[in-house]
Amino acid sequence: MLSLKEKTDLVIDLCHKNDITAYEISKETGLSAAGVQKILNNEVNKPRNKTLNIILEYIENKIVGTGIDNKKIEESLLKEPDNSYKPIIKPTGVVPYYNVEISGTFISSFDDAKEYIEFYIDYKPLNDCTAYLPYFGNSMYPMFKSGNTLAVKQINNFNIILWGEPHLIITNDNANNYKTVKCIYPHNDPSKIILRAKNPDFAGDIIVNKEDILSLFIVKGKIELNEL
């Protein structure tokens, strides 16, 4: 019978040897990617036995037929049945929710932040979006309030922009690595754009070269929760 520490070490070792990521596990099991990543980083002192069993079952299913010795996995799952275990439910939504304050990270796209995916949202009018993420700050008040969840869709052609609409902009070092949500307006120079806040307390335009934009996303919707 494996202890929690031994089972955790087994999960970490198998994921490392088989290049299994927290994102893969989250996508197939419904577990939080951030939570799984903490387990893989050995940052959780006492992970739940049920969570470890779910991860081990996923690993076992993934490596079946690869020639890997499953003896330890079988010992963990078969000799320690978890009566509280429920069938794994795969996420039904299609758009990932990233639990990350993007302005405080070094990511340049959501491909760099897969470990922050917590769950998936299936809302058909916004299923063409790239991501949902929390919004913090007051510069876009009253359009967006701090704590809102924004649905954003990536824009690939910077020459076709819906002027006046809110966008998430991620820039490079030449533009001070801005990661901000602002309304976008045309500049007299077509190689530049203007970023403008909605809140009058945040007066002043920001001029950005289009070539300094790493990623651009239009904000298509928001989720606002009432306080209880």
Please give the largest β-sheet.
7 strands, antiparallel
Strand order of the largest sheet: 3-4-9-5-6-7-8
Q: Which residue ranges are poorly predicted, with pLDDT under 50 across at least 5 consecutive positions?
A: 81-90
Proportion of residues in extended strands: 15-25%
The tally of beta strands, per DSSP, is 9
Q: Count the helices. How many?
A: 5
Net shape: elongated
Radius of gyration over C-alpha positions, nearest whole angstrom: 22 Å
Mean pLDDT: 83
The helical percent reads 10-25%
Structure description:
By secondary structure, this protein is an alpha+beta fold. The chain is 23% helix and 24% strand. It has five helices and nine strands; from the N terminus they run αααααβββββββββ. The chain has helices spanning 4-17, 22-29, 33-40, 49-63, 71-78, and strands at residues 95-98, 117-121, 131-134, 149-155, 166-171, 179-186, 192-196, 206-209, 213-223. It has a seven-stranded antiparallel beta sheet, with no helix packed on it. The protein has a two-stranded antiparallel sheet with strand order 1-2. Helix 1 packs parallel to helix 4 and helix 4 (49-63) runs antiparallel to helix 5 (71-78). The longest helix is centred in the first third of the chain and has 15 residues, at 49-63.
Summarize the structure.
About 25% of the residues lie in helices and about 25% in strands. It has helices spanning about 5-15, 20-30, 35-40, 50-65, 70-80, and strands at about 95-100, 115-120, 130-135, 150-155, 165-170, 180-185, 190-195, 205-210, 215-225.
